[in-house]
Specification:
The protein is of the alpha/beta class. It has a single domain (21-291), classed as Alpha/Beta hydrolase fold, catalytic domain (Rossmann fold, 3-Layer(aba) Sandwich). Helices cover 31% and strands 18% of the residues. The protein has helices spanning 83-90, 109-125, 127-130, 144-155, 177-180, 184-189, 193-204, 213-217, 245-256, 280-291, and strands at residues 36-42, 51-56, 63-69, 95-99, 132-142, 167-171, 231-236, 261-266. Strands 1-2-4-3-5-6-7-8 form an 8-stranded mixed beta sheet, with helices on both faces. Strand 3, helix 1 and strand 4 form a beta-alpha-beta unit.
């Protein structure tokens, strides 16, 4: 049965520039002994300049694998800003891929999605080389990365089964681009919505219109179907960049389809989803362990 955990109240703090800082903890000085790194793996024949770095724990395989998708306004990313995320998850028994992808203004959403799908297919097709479990793939991301994680979850079975994932954790993402700029409640929650409209339009690659196919196709809510994997949504109510109602909307639609979905909304933490007393890092870990069937330590 679908599960909806309670909304958790917390005291407000000032958001930091490092997105999802609470999910990127510092590790002890000898953290490198807890995992090994395979850097600079070319994974996309259509974009040979793209690379991913694979973090592998010392555990015996087959290993659950998580694609870590860094945010950044749908601009091109190297993924290196999520090294703390990779270290944290690798220290808890997950293989983690830091994935580079292309973005605006040169590339639009189908290109970016093609990049993260290619990374998923590459890792699955080469899973034997690194003792990855091809049946236990997930994606985590924040902001634009959260949108991409949701797109990967909801489009994974549309063309290539190798692109499927089994769970996703989406932090402060956009899941319905049309309602973001059409719903009065959401507009009131984002003071800079006119600027965000421009940047989203640059990534989507088409002028905004409520019936524009490109804006619907870029929205994970448009791809939801009964075969989609579990998703955990983490958001802060005081996020002035992406309205928390975006996460609620996608969660509610998943619930209507009887899909497994969890929503946790913190009162504070801003767009970084960094609540003063909340524990999004632990919630992420719990969710991934549960839905990738990884035993507790």
């Amino acid at each position: 049965m679908p599960h909806t955990p309670p909304i958790h109240p917390h005291r407000p703090i000032t958001a930091v520039s490092l997105l999802l800082a609470v999910l990127l903890p510092s590790l002890p000085a000898h953290a490198d002994e807890k995992f090994r790194i395979i850097p600079d793996l070319a994974f996309a024949p259509h974009a040979p300049q793209l690379r991913l770095s694979l973090y592998l724990p010392p555990d015996k395989g087959p290993l659950p694998c998580v694609l870590a998708l860094q945010g950044g306004g749908f601009l091109p990313q190297t993924g290196k800003g999520y090294r703390g995320m990779a270290e944290f998850l690798a220290s808890h028994g997950f293989a983690v891929a830091l994935v580079a992808y292309r973005g605006r203004p040169e590339q639009h959403f189908p290109d970016t999605l093609a990049d993260v799908r290619a990374a998923t297919a590459f890792l699955r097709k080469n899973s034997h080389q690194w003792q990855l479990d091809p049946r236990k793939f997930a994606a985590v991301g924040g902001s634009a990365g959260g949108t991409l994680a949701a797109l990967l979850a909801t489009t994974g079975d549309e063309t290539d089964p190798a692109c499927r994932i089994q769970a996703a954790v989406c932090c402060a993402g956009v899941f319905d681009f049309v309602s973001r700029f059409q719903d009065p409640q959401q507009l009131a929650l984002q003071p800079a919505h006119a600027e965000k409209l421009k940047t989203n339009q640059a990534w989507i690659g088409a002028p905004f219109a409520t019936d524009a196919p490109a804006w619907r196709q870029a929205s994970p809510t448009s791809h939801l179907n009964t075969g989609d994997p579990p998703i955990l949504f983490l958001h802060s109510r005081n996020d002035a960049t992406v309205p928390w109602l975006q996460s609620k909307l996608c969660h509610d639609q998943m619930q209507k389809l009887k899909l497994i979905s969890e929503l946790i909304v913190y009162e504070d933490g801003g767009h970084a989803v960094a609540p003063e007393n909340g524990k999004p890092r632990e919630e992420m870990l719990r969710f991934l362990r549960t839905h990738l069937q990884l035993s507790q330590p």
